[in-house]
Amino acid sequence: xxxxxxxxxxxxxxxxxxxxxxxxxxxxxxxxxxxxxxxxxxxxxxxxxxxxxxxxxxxxxxxxxxxxxxxxxxxxxxxxxxxxxxxxxxxxxxxxxxxxxxxxxxxxxxxxxxxxxxxxxxxxxxxxxxxxxxxxxxxxxxxxxxxxxxxxxxxxxxxxxxxxxxxxxxxxxxxxxxxxxxxxxxxxxxxxxxxxxxxxxxxxxxxxxxxxxxxxxxxxxxxxxxxxxxxxxxxxxxxxxxxxxxxxxxxxxxxxxxxxxxxxxxxxx
Amino acid sequence: xxxxxxxxxxxxxxxxxxxxxxxxxxxxxxxxxxxxxxxxxxxxxxxxxxxxxxxxxxxxxxxxxxxxxxxxxxxxxxxxxxxxxxxxxxxxxxxxxxxxxxxxxxxxxxxxxxxxxxxxxxxxxxxxxxxxxxxxxxxxxxxxxxxxxxxxxxxxxxxxxxxxxxxxxxxxxxxxxxxxxxxxxxxxxxxxxxxxxxxxxxxxxxxxxx
Lengths: 269, 210
Hints:
heterodimer, A: alpha+beta, five-stranded antiparallel beta sheet, elongated, B: mainly alpha, globular
C-alpha cells in the first residue's frame, strides 16, 4: 500500500466504519512506517472528535412542543378526513409567503363568486332595476356575510307589493322561501384551488371528482378564509383526486338554499 | 424465566408507517419521536437558524403524512429518506431567504442556553472552553459550501453510512466519499483559521487553561 491508497481509506479508518480485514491490516502497517500518513490519520481523528463533541452537545436539541402539537393535529385531521373522504389537507403553517398566496387566491375566489352572482341575477330577473334598488343595503348598515349574493327569491306577491310601495307584512324571522326543484338543485362553486403549489394537473393520467363534507375549521386552517358562521359547521367541497388517490385540488360549493338562508339570517340581524 | 429475558419487540419503521396510514396515532407519535431530533438537528446544522429548523421539521413530517406511501423501503432507510426530504426543504427555504439580510446575528431563541448547560459540572472552565470550541466548529460548518456541509452533517454529525447519505442526497456513493474528503479539508482549514488546531478537543482545553 502506498500513500495514495491510504488516503482513499483514511476516512473509513478514522470513522471505524466497515472495512475488510486485509485493507485495515495493510493500512495500519503503512501508517506505522509513514509519518505523513500517521499525521493525516491523527488529523482526521481529531476532526471527527470535534464534530462528535458538537453532535453530543446538540443531542438534546429538538423541535419545540408547538411543532409536536401542530403535527399531531395534522395527523388527526388527516385521519378524520381520510376516514370520511380521503382528503388530506395541510394545517396552518408558519410560512408567511404561502399565507399571502392563499389570501390572493381567496380574494380571487370572492371576486369570481360575486361576478357569477351578478350575471345570474341580471339573467334571471324580469325587471332588474327596481329589484336591485330593493336589495341595495341601507348606508351604514352592517356588511353582509361573505357568501355569494344569490339572486333574490321573493315570492311573486312580495315583488308586486314592493313595486306598489306597500308596507311589508309581518312574518316570521328565518322564514325560508319555498324553492322549486330546479332552484334547490342549483348550486355555485368556486374555482379549483391547487393543494400543491405549482402542480400541473394536466399531466395526470386520471382525475376523479369527489363531493365531501368538511369541518369549516379545516378549510380555514388551509388558509382559505370563510365566513365565521361556517367555521363551526360543515362545508361542502369538491375534491379532485389524482390516480394515486391523493387530493390535488379543492373547490367550495354552496347550495342556493344554504346561501339564501344565510343571507336572510344576516338581513334579519 | 426465558420469556422474561426476551428483549421487547421494537416495531420497524415500515410497520410503524403501515399502522400510521391505518390511522394509528401511537404509531405516528413513535415514528415522530424516533426521527424528529434527527430532522431538526440536520436542518439546524445546515441553516444555523432555529426558525428554519422548525419549519423544515414541520414540512418534512407533513410531507410524510401526505406522501409517505411513496416511500419504498427497498431503496433505503426511512432515516435517509427523511434526511433527503429535510435537505430539499432546507435548500428551498435558504434560497427563499437569500434576498433578506439578517439584522441580528442570532435570535434570542437561538442564543438561549439549555438549563442543563447552565449547571456547571466539576470543571467549569473546561466546560466553558469546550462550549466555545463547539460554537466555533458549528460556525465553521455553517461557513462551508452547501454541497460539502450536507455530507459532513449527514455522515459525521448524524452518522449515516455513505450509502444512506448517497440516498439522501440522491447521488452516487463515490460522490459522497469525494465530497467528504474535500469537506474535511476545508473544515480543517477553517478550524485552524479560527484558532482550533488539529489536536483533540480535550488536549486543546488542557492547553487553554494550563
